[in-house]
Design brief:
Strand content: 35-45%
Shape: globular
Helix content: 10-25%
Largest sheet: 6 strands, mixed
Number of helices: 1
Radius of gyration: 21 Å
Structural class: alpha+beta
């Protein structure tokens, strides 16, 4: 009887560990800004502004695997599997795009990556 109880306990612990591992979240979060925010920048005034309600696309192996829209303050959070992704902002085709262009997502944790979108204003 004790052997059966011990075996059941081992199985229960193994299942709990598997559920815990599969429910851990990986991905990215951070702030996105538009730069430059206007045609003229003045000393003492930021030349950026939050990228409010901008769609970001995360690409892997040549296809979009996830899209996310930033909040009004430019913040974003996106669950992604661990690995390297290319990032784009499809609405911003002018300028040099999103920086950094490639991001690394760690396995089983959320990482902060702040992004800048070049508006193309010269």
């Amino acid at each position: 009887m004790r052997a059966a109880l011990a075996a059941a306990l081992v199985v229960a612990l193994a299942l709990a560990s598997a559920v815990s591992a599969s429910s851990s979240t990986s991905g990215l979060h951070g702030l996105v800004v538009l730069s430059p925010a206007g045609p003229v920048c003045f000393e003492g005034d930021p030349c950026t502004r939050p990228a409010a309600r901008v769609v970001l696309a995360f690409w892997r192996h040549g296809r979009v695997v996830k899209r996310v829209t930033t909040r009004a303050d430019g913040a974003y959070r996106v669950p992604l599997l661990g690995g390297v992704y290319r990032v784009s902002a499809p609405a911003y085709r002018v300028g040099s795009g999103v920086t950094p262009k490639k991001v690394r997502v760690p396995t089983n944790r959320m990482a902060r990556v702040d992004l800048t979108i070049d508006t193309g204003i010269q």
